[in-house]
Design goal:
The chain is of the alpha+beta class. The protein has a single domain (3-404), classed as Cytochrome p450 (Orthogonal Bundle), CATH 1.10.630. It is built from 17 helices and ten strands. The protein is globular, with a radius of gyration of 21 Å. The model has no long low-confidence stretch (mean pLDDT 92). Bound molecules: protoporphyrin IX containing FE.
């Protein structure tokens, strides 16, 4: 490994992190970077930092609390006040002790057992959505199926009336851009405006639930807030908004990416259709193969030595989850889709103290959605052979995925 090769690979990735080639298929770029060094310095994102593409290195960082979470917006700026304040109160960007306190409250609702309670509602919702398209023989998986499904489920869990959830599509599409590393000033400005609207919406809803509690997450959090001083008003609002974003965006991507992966691997589609009991393993493989969250970030709270590299205090670290999940040192035939892969210790839901709280819910939604689609319909074909990916580096997200079927 020479310095020249190192620099050349870095230059390639630096000029390409938002290129159409990268967006279409980031994996060759990840492979190149990893083969030079699984931790290397780069400056193609807004803030320069360490690009981590190796599995072991990603795990080491995610489990080390000296690598801290922080909100991605500059704290000194007077701009984007609403967005900054709300992100500041989200557990995703908090460290101990606040992180533990907030996470404990919400995790009570996201246990496997509680999520199982939603299974029949998810199945009913999936069937209802498929009934609406079955005679048309064509649908956009993103807007006709994955998005309304994720939206109806998170609305149900949170306690948002189903008829009010339509506005969430635009809101979440805008907000996800504010936490992506490609975000522009325009995206931040519209994210700030959207946050204002979400604050008005949730303040009203919280007020209604205070007067008339229901069997939902918002009412439960209000009860916690009223019983002790464990949750502030602002944290309650931030938690609702975090769950809306997290509950929509990544689950939609998991369902759409799974279907695209199957259509690009017809032999695996047949195998899954003939062996429905493979569904759990198949979803794990889709999570690994086209990880909905491709990247997360941390900042070093002190100088840290990792596999011969010194990461200095206050330096940014970008963990490319999508790359770690294709590390050949960890996964045999890492670039091959294998719906029977076992074991499959992917990092799609993160690792360590911030491990995804919604993983059980997302898994059940995806399992029921894909299983039901394959059992009810057949002869699936892509309408466009090359579906477009959204311009995000942190998320693997299709703009649309139109398919025909019988
Ligand atoms: C396929 C779907 C999903 C994927 C791939 C995903 C991925 C992730 C990842 C990678 C993290 C860790 C981020 C980090 O360490 O910086 C995370 C955290 C989180 N996710 Fe998910 N997520 C999904 C679905 C959901 C759903 C459905 C919900 C809620 C309804 C949810 C709620 C959360 C929350 C609250 C956190 C923050 C946890 C913390 O900071 O302690 N996620 N998710």
């Amino acid at each position: 490994m020479t310095n020249g090769l190192h620099l050349e690979a870095l230059k390639t990735i630096q000029s390409s992190l938002t290129s159409p080639e990268f967006l279409n298929n980031p994996y060759p770029f990840y492979d190149k970077l990893r083969s030079v060094n699984p931790i290397c310095w780069g400056n193609s994102l807004k803030y320069p930092g360490w690009y981590v593409t190796g599995y072991e290195e990603a795990v080491a960082i995610l489990k080390d609390t000296r690598f801290q979470n922080r909100i991605p917006l500059p704290q000194t700026s007077k701009k984007y006040e609403h967005l900054k304040h709300i992100q500041n109160d989200m557990m995703l960007f908090k460290n101990q002790p606040d992180h533990k306190r907030l996470r404990m409250l919400v995790s009570k609702v996201f246990t496997k057992g509680v999520v199982e309670y939603y299974r029949s509602y998810i199945k009913e919702t999936v069937d209802g959505l498929l009934n609406q398209v079955q005679h048309k023989k064509i649908m956009d998986i993103v807007s006709d199926f994955a998005f309304p499904l994720a939206s109806l489920i998170i609305a149900k869990v949170l306690g948002v009336p189903a008829e009010e959830r339509h506005q969430f599509r635009e809101w979440t599409v805008t907000l996800i851009q504010t936490i992506d590393f490609t975000r522009s000033r325009k995206a931040l400005a519209s994210g700030n405006d959207t946050t204002k609207m979400l604050l008005v919406y949730f303040r009203e809803l919280i007020q209604k639930r205070k007067q008339n509690p229901q069997d939902d997450l918002i009412s439960m959090l209000i009860k916690e807030e009223q019983q002790g001083d464990t949750l502030t008003d602002e944290e309650l609002l931030a938690t609702c908004i975090l769950l809306v974003i997290a509950g929509h965006e990544t689950t939609v991507n998991l369902i759409s990416n799974s279907i695209l992966s199957l259509l690009n691997h017809p032999e695996q589609l047949i195998e899954l259709k003939e062996n429905p009991s493979f569904i759990e393993k198949a979803i794990e493989e889709f999570l690994r193969y086209e990880s909905p969250t491709q990247m997360t970030a941390r900042m070093a709270s002190e100088d840290i030595e990792l596999n011969g590299t010194t990461i200095k205090k206050d330096e940014h670290v970008y963990i490319f989850i999508g790359a770690a999940n294709r590390d050949p040192k960890k996964f045999i035939d890492a670039n091959v889709l294998d719906i029977t892969r076992n074991p499959n210790p992917h990092l799609a839901f993160g690792y360590g103290s911030h491990f995804c709280l919604g993983s059980s819910l997302a898994r059940i939604e995806a399992q029921i959605a894909i299983h039901t689609l394959l059992q009810r319909f057949s002869n699936f074909q892509l309408v466009t052979l090359d579906p477009k990916w959204r311009k995000l580096t942190g998320f693997r997200s299709l703009e649309e995925l139109s398919i025909t079927f019988d």
